[in-house]
Specification:
With about 200 residues, this protein is of the alpha/beta class. The chain has two domains: about 100 residues, Rossmann fold (3-Layer(aba) Sandwich), CATH 3.40.50.170; about 100 residues, Rossmann fold. About 35% of the residues lie in helices and about 25% in strands. The chain contains six helices and nine strands; from the N terminus they run βαβαβαβαβαββαββ. It has a seven-stranded mixed beta sheet. A two-stranded antiparallel ribbon has the order 8-9. The longest helix is centred in the C-terminal third of the chain and has 25 residues. It starts with a strand and ends with a strand. The protein binds 5-O-phosphono-beta-D-ribofuranosylamine. The site of 5-O-phosphono-beta-D-ribofuranosylamine has 13 residues, from helix 1 and strand 5.
Length: about 200
Amino acid sequence: MKKRLGILLSGRGSNFEAIADNVAAGRLDAEIAVVISNRPEARGLEVARQRGLHAVCIPSKGLDREVYDRMLAEELRRCRVDLICLAGFMRLLSAWFVREFPFQILNIHPSLLPAFPGLDAQAQALEHGVKVSGCTVHFVDEYLDHGPIILQAAVPVLEDDTVETLSARILREEHRIYTEAIRIVLSGRWRIEGRRVRILPE
Ligand code: GRF
């Protein structure tokens, strides 16, 4: 039985598209069971529909965090999702939700965590003056951009970089390592030691 992914997004959805491309090409042995957006206008939702995937909008505006998260959990369970992938999902998940799906939620963040958590990570990196930045795929815990790290990729920060050029360089790596991290997690070749995710040999 193929493992079933649930993708949560709020916007553009390029990470979702990269994952969907890899699934379609047989490079990732899984299926996308559902794509959920908390914003009706999310481009990613439209792309999911065009691809014939099960795409659902559950608007979050004005809802209490846990009330919303219970709706999310219900849809994910209905779709028998094995792994939840946050792909530009602009909402903090409640401790309740995280406990419901232990080590079953991944996130991607456009910095080398723990540097520059939160919004506008690429702008934060430029302002701070770092010479190397990158991206991180991690398990989600109840704190923002905080859980155990599965994979990271580094990119150089160039002298004439703008937020746009740096973001584009990081995004290419995001598209590569998110699928790789999903593959590792689904394979079960890992174990947790404190904050460390140990990746075991094949
Ligand atoms: C990415 O930079 C991701 O790291 C961050 O939000 C952005 C989403 O981009 N969490 P996209 O919607 O996947 O194109």
